[in-house]
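haha ok so turns out i had the wrong file open the whole time. this is the CORRECT one, sorry everyone. sequence first:
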Amino acid sequence: MRVNGWIKIFVSAILVAFVFYKIGISKTLQALVKVQPGLLALVIIISFVSIIIGALNIQILLKGFKYKIGLLKLSWHYLVAWAVGIFLPSKIGEFSLVLLLKKENFRMRHTLIVSIFDKLCTVLVVIAISFAGILILFRDKPQLLVLCALVGAGCILVLAIILSRHTKKLITKLISRWASKVNLSVGQFQKEFLWFLRNHFWLLVINVVLTAVKWFFMALSTYVLFLALGVYVPLYVVWIINCILTVAGLVPISADGLGIREGLGFVLFSGFVADAGIIGAVLAIHLAIKYALGLAILLVYLPSRTS
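then structure:
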């Protein structure tokens, strides 16, 4: 891992420690003892459902290259790639699914194209839900609505300029960067990338829809977690806030957005939950489930890889 990766991990640790310090460790612990174990188990099950939907998205996109793989097998690869991405916030973590699918005799340039389109669809969905959600959650604050409208208009203007003048140059640059990560022919990669976009657009539409469903289930797990602590937060509010946190996590100053999401999550959920300890408990449980599950997957995968 490069020095930049270690710096991000250090920044994440500082941010997480600061967030829980501001919330109050004692308040968080007091809230944790109230959790209902049955609902906590349901949270884990729902999390697995969202992962399976993510794997289904990849399976559908792979059909564009006429690749076939069982959903359960692909879900395992998807889980391993997700776990690697948690602990290795670097190029290896980002593209580990490409390397795993290489073992299934899938061409790396094809799986890389699929992986990139899947990520782009995810970004599109969470940004759309976040922007629409801000308008819904803060509809009674006209100043913020005006700000959102100005920001949205600015984004549209910038996008229009890029698409009208520099599309070919920008796409070529991005494709060259992605292809170089796995030592692929840039020309062939670019050709097949644009071919997939032109000929399998509807697969991308399906991916967008399933991605929205996936994020609904991820929001459902947080919703149930609040219920497990005796607090009701509207599901649509949790869905919107989760997407906003994901967008915020794209800021490249910490490892996988760790620390940024927790800090902003505390601020946003504070508008709907009065007890800071409850929010701290939800954040802590999410982190515990995420890293415990990731570690368990790697502990199962690594011995099988060396055997």
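The mean pLDDT is 81.
again sry for the mixup
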